[in-house]
């Protein structure tokens, strides 16, 4: 994550700070909220040399980190260790999103030695709830063991305050709403970044968790309670309206997401490549196999994307906090598209989660 000042400065100087890469669509879980609908039956694998080329092009645009987000579970990628070592060799921080099921002590030590940061998963402290959300029996115990191995390797020992290398991703919904405070305390007490996301109506969630979406009142209540906890016990203060709790999400200003097909998006749930209105001659042109990353970054579409804060509508457009919060563009886009709204208009709609 990059703060508001760094994100704004990067955008204003035409610098890319991060890319998010899908490496494979295979996954050893079947999460019911997966935006990519990954699973064991999905076998798409990115070419390693193509990934190195993309990273090299991104380095020329100024990136500081590469988020290896898999699309599925990235530790299943055949060249996973080579990829992490390559990113590290360029002086770029590797950031891995993993369900930690395959996180052995040895792998955790390897990642620690290559300057990686890791975002794990923990949707519930109740085995039956975690197993249900992950779509596999026994997932809770495997996830727990993987997180323990990361902690043992030193990931919860930051070099200095605020420089955390371990996070836990937590998708808040009606099934785990009552556990949020307990997980929050666990993260804060162990120097773990609590990546509290809100269930988004895209991918598999549309079919399997539609009735588990939180209301605006439920989101407001838990965010204000967590803010109170942080102020009282941990000395943190933050804006409660941002889409990721205790942290703004300004990805659209400084980051690009590249899926397994090479299609470029602003972020994972902002699936511009799937919308027919953005196709030319039947295909989505903003693909790293058809255009250079620099050409895509400087295109009219992605120039519009990284300046989205200047054209936001409704409450977002008039908000005094727009310098550090642009709402969740992925959620706004998903809701807009589901309601038949034009993709560019959907992208600038007011945040659907904000309770301000």
TrEMBL record:
Keywords: 4Fe-4S, Iron, Iron-sulfur, Metal-binding, S-adenosyl-L-methionine. Gene3D superfamilies: Aldolase class I. InterPro entries: 4Fe4S-binding_SPASM_dom (IPR023885), Aldolase_TIM (IPR013785), Elp3/MiaA/NifB-like_rSAM (IPR006638), PqqE-like (IPR017200), Radical_SAM_PqqE_MftC-like (IPR050377), rSAM (IPR007197), rSAM_sf (IPR058240). One of its GO terms (molecular function) is 4 iron, 4 sulfur cluster binding. It comes from the Archaea. Its cofactor is [4Fe-4S] cluster. This is Tungsten-containing aldehyde ferredoxin oxidoreductase cofactor modifying protein. It comes from Methanosarcina horonobensis HB-1 = JCM 15518. The lineage of its organism: Archaea, Methanobacteriati, Methanobacteriota, Stenosarchaea group, Methanomicrobia.
